[in-house]
Amino acid sequence: MRKPSLDMRRSLVAGALTIALLTACDKPAKVPERPPPVPAPEAAPAATAPAPATTQPATMVSISAAHPAATKVNDAGPAITAMRMATASSKIGVPVDLHYKFDGDVQTGRPVTLYLAAVPRVEGSNLVVSIKEAPGIVATAAPLAAQKASARTAYRQQLLLTKREGGPTELRVLVTMELPEGSAFGWFGVPLDGVPAVQSKQSGTLR
Amino acid sequence: MRYKGTGLIVAGMAALLVLNACGGGGGAAPTPNTAPIARAGSAQSVSAGAPVTLNGSASSDADGSIAGYAWTQTAGTSVTLTGASTAGPSFVAPQVVNTSTLTFSLVVTDNVGALSAASSVTITVNAPVIVNVTVAGTVRFARVTYRSTSPFGLDYANPVLRPARGVAVRAIDAGTLAVLATGVTDASGAYSLTVTSNATIAIQVVAQMQRAGTPRWDVRVQNGLTGTAPYTYASAAFSSNVGTKDIDIPTGIPANGSNPPSLSDRASGPFAILDTIFTAIQAVVAVAPSATFPELLVDWGVQTDGSQFSTAAGGVQYIQLLADLGEDADEFDQHTVAHEFGHFVEHNFSRSDNRGGSHSLSDRLDMRTAFGEGFGYGFAAIVLNDPVVRDGFVNTLGQQVSGSFNAETNPPSTGAGAGCWCSEISVVSILWDLYDSVSDGSDNISLGFAPIWAAMTGDQRNTPAFTSIFSFITALKAAQPGSAALINTLVAAQNINAASIDAFATAETNAPFPNMLPLYANITRGGGPVIVRSIDDGGHFNKAGNGGLLRFVATSTGPVTVTLTTSNPAVNSDPDFFVQRSGILVALGDDGAPQPETETFNVTAGTTYVINAYDCANGCDTVQGTPGDYDLTVTIN
Q1: Which of A24, A53, B363, B598 is the most exposed place for a label (fewest CB within 10 A)?
Q2: What is the DSSP secondary structure assignment for residue A48, as one 8-state letter?
Q3: Alpha helices in B29-104 (DSSP H)
Q4: What are the tens digits of pLDDT across the range B339-398?
């Protein structure tokens, strides 16, 4: 039987203080939002994971390790809790949750801003988030890359996206990361059609 | 000119007298022409399909020469005569079912245009003698392997041919597609089928492996779960008389790995999948000669959205494998295929309480998921005898690359991705090191696969705890007491307390997040509430800490009621739980909000039950509400 002990209560208080500190630390110096990055020319990767020709400094915000719900975000994008989670392909993948949010409805021929936040569940390196080109979709952004990826930290990217007539119903996003045990990747789907305002759903019971 | 009889001589002389009396011309009277004689030659007996030449060369003309021949067919199956106006025309004897006769007539013309009487000849065409003949050969498929240099992607430009082992082959009539003979390739890809001679046939190679008796298996690869037949590759048509027919099944994929026009063009993919499974089956049969594998369906097609093992309604067990060449196709990723087959093996021969769900390197997983997924890759490394796990994919630049890890390389002892009971890589590393013969660091043991199999199919299958590395190592040490010290050293290197290990992790001191120990809380009937913690620090659903585990030993037989509440303050907070007895689900409390969640069920005295309680904000497949850390209060009355 385990009940909250005095120590645990102290921990909770300490945790709450930590959250407050983290939140305070996360308040950036009112950096104006970056304009949508210019697509980089393609280049061959140097290693297993696909590396971009040029890397865009990732905008980071820490998420409280104890209470992500209480976490506030910086000015770079929406709160993580206000974003949906992209569906990952269902096999061993990359330990990263990919969150997304559009600033409006995705309508044919009308540019819309897509906010992405890649949140590693564990520490890693060479985190790269890249968008797959597809007919009928125009997305202007260089890959997001971070040489060191901290756990529970949001690596953000925003891009201007325009869907053409007959374009795909899903934006495909590849996330790769190096880990102490090896290299990992995962393909994610960001739906471009109307989706209910619910949190993420993994694709079934998988193993 | 010769005269033929006295009568003619007299008549001829009379005619000459008449002509003279009439004053017509002087000199001798003309000799009458003698008609030529046609001789169509001797009768012949030939085989169906054989070339035949008629012979009219014995025809003659007594008072001149033969100036022309005219052959015609007067009876029998019509044939085309070549050179019908020559002395020796020819034709091809028709194919006949029964012996039959053809009749030809010859009329010759002499040098003054006189025609002969007709002469006939008969040609007997004999029906072919049908005999059984053997068509044999080797079936090979094209396997795509990884490049040996970075970025280690699949090399579609240089496939290698491998024998297609244990797959179904059948000879079909090339015209009617009727199946004439069936067989199975052997371990070298060789097949042998008996068919009738003189037939035009094709060989179909079917993406199915079946073996009756002991051991037994039945695996097929198809597109979709229902309504489709296994993938099949067919050779070009050929004569059954050839004797040998080797078949090479190509990838059908361009050298750059781009998509061919259709999935069916990717001919060797299904056979690559089966080949990996054949390898795995052989490894199991080597330690369990009487293994009976249930029917397994492999769904390989563009509709699949992941690689996974599942059971469908009706008990159909299936593996789905990705087939998207634009992003990720798994038919040539042997460790991925063997991993999913490992789940199938674990499910049927051992037991898996794996919660499923997405999982990754370094993830801190629920102990059940960590073991199940780790067993999948450990099994793959063992049966393939290759610790380097590689999974090819295509990056957004269109390049063939791969993700990978090495089972021989232990996770770090501290820091990110450190060894843990919650790490599938730790489980992979332990299983591989138990199996392999290479000593490194803490690995000084080499048991091979048999003891691992024995533990998996023995105590691990019946453990009253949830299946995990704890229950497995407990089972292994019980079966291998002489190796206990070496096992302890190996397992301890993964930050797992091996020396005092038991299935319920009673002595475990390592946890990835605070407030997780002990991993099982004991609970008794009427003993008051027990609080366990739900922690979302590692992620939701199948990650470590999302649910609390409880152990309950029934002291009396009869109904008990489990009640669960959560400290989650959300209005629609939804705590759920389920109860197992040695892997058997005995109660499920998932009624949804509002709390509390309550279930009543019968228990048997002396029996151990395990309870998994969780808040759906953390522990459900689909997150409900706001994830966080919550207290779960459980009572049994």
Answers
A1: A24
A2: S
A3: none
A4: 999 999 999 999 999 988 888 988 999 999 999 999 999 999 999 999 999 999 999 999
Alpha helices in B356-468 (DSSP H): 367-384, 424-435, 449-457, 459-462
Residues 204-233 in B contacting A (C-alpha not used; CB under 8 Å): none
Dist CA B622 CA B602 (whole Å): 30
Closest alpha carbon to B181 in B198, B194, B167: B194
Name A41's Cβ contacts closer than 8 Å, sequence gap at least 6: A53
Residues 458-517 of B with CB under 8 A from A: 514-515
Contact B586, A163 (CB under 8 A): no
Facing residue for A90 by CB, picked from B306, B391, B533: B306
Reduced to 3 states (helix: H, G, I; strand: E, B; else coil), residue B166 is: coil
B259 touches chain A (CB under 8 A): no
Cα–Cα dist B335/B382, whole Å:
10
CB atoms within 10 A of CB B461: 18
> Testing the interface with A: which of B354, B358, B623 to mutate, by most A Cβ within 10 A?
B358
Phi, then psi, of B551 in degrees rounded to 5: -120, 130
Residues of chain B neighbouring A81 (CB-CB closer than 8 A): 626
Cα–Cα distance between B205 and B182 in angstroms, integer? 10
Q: Is residue A95 within 8 angstroms of chain B, CB to CB? A: yes
- Given the DSSP bridges, would you call strands A96-102 and A112-120 parallel, antiparallel or unpaired? antiparallel
Token pair, residue A80, equals 């993580």
CB pairs under 8 A between A and B: 212
Q: Does A180 touch chain B (CB under 8 A)?
A: yes
| β-strand pairing of B547-553 with B160-163 | unpaired
> B167 in the Ramachandran plot: left (φ > 0), alpha (ψ -120 to 50) or beta?
beta
Q: Closest to B336 (Cβ–Cβ): which among A68, A91, A143?
A: A91
Distance between CA atoms of B105 and B103, rounded to whole angstroms? 7
pLDDT tens digit sequence for B508-557: 999 999 989 999 999 999 999 999 999 998 888 999 999 999 999 999 99
> Quick check: bond before B518 cis, omega within 30?
yes
Helix (H, G, I), strand (E, B) or coil at B482: helix
Surface of A (98-137) touching B: CB under 8 A? 121-124, 130-133
Contact map slice: B 345-374 vs A, CB within 8 A = 352, 354-364, 369, 372-373
| Model ipTM value | 0.78
Asked if A112 and A140 touch (Cβ cutoff 8 Å), the reply is: no
Q: Is the peptide bond before A68 cis (omega within 30 degrees of 0)?
A: no
Cβ(B573)–Cβ(B595) under 8 Å? Answer: yes
Nearest in space to B295 (alpha carbons), one of B208, B224, B206, B218:
B218
Torsion of Cα atoms, B483 then B488 then B494 then B497, to 10°: 150
CA atoms within 13 A on the CB side of B118: 10
Of A95, A172, A185, the CB nearest to B362: A95
Contact A1 B533 (CB under 8 A): no
Contacts of A16 in chain B (CB under 8 A): none
List, for residues A86-111, the tens digit of each pLDDT value.
776 657 789 999 999 999 888 889 99
Q: How would you classify the pairing of strands B400-406 and B388-394?
A: antiparallel
Token duo for residue B559: 């109904």
Phi, psi (5° rounding) for residue B242? Answer: -70, -25
Residue among A2, A48, A183 minimizing CB distance to B532:
A2
Q: Is B313 on the interface with A (CB under 8 A)?
A: no
- SS3 call for A98: strand
Q: Residue window 148-187, chain B: list those with CB within 8 Å of chain A.
A: 150-152
Shortest Cα distance, chain A CAs vs residue B131, angstroms = 53
Centroid of chain to Cα B367: 32
Confirm if B193 and B134 have CB atoms less than 8 A apart: yes
